[in-house]
Design a protein that fits this description.
Blueprint lengths: L1 H61 L20 H18 L1
Length: 101
């Protein structure tokens, strides 16, 4: 009877060891997923910020201000178009749409 109990305890110990190893593997997998999730969140946030920056510049231009480097922030008289601003906005819009796809 003592041998049977000892054998059962040894089997239980082996099963417990296997379960603990599996738990350790799952913890490592969960940690890797958390790291990947954080990297994806940062990438998504960066992409959203780029879109927001372009939208803000486009809005400023629509409100009558220059967004080009030569005259940034100056008022555009009578909302006249500025080729520098339009070129800049077109270039940024094209770059942004290529990144998002």
């Amino acid at each position: 009877m003592g041998i049977e109990v000892l054998q059962l305890v040894m089997e239980l110990e082996a099963k417990l060891k296997a379960i603990l190893e599996e738990i350790q593997e799952l913890k490592m997998y969960a940690y890797a997923l958390e790291e990947q999730n954080e990297q994806l969140r940062e990438k998504l946030y960066a992409q959203q910020q780029q879109g927001t920056a372009y939208d803000n510049l486009a809005k400023l231009y629509e409100e009558g201000f220059h967004v080009c480097h030569a005259h940034f922030g100056r008022f555009r008289p009578q909302n006249e178009d500025c080729l520098f601003c339009l070129s800049f906005l077109h270039k940024n819009n094209k770059d942004g749409s290529e990144r998002r796809e």
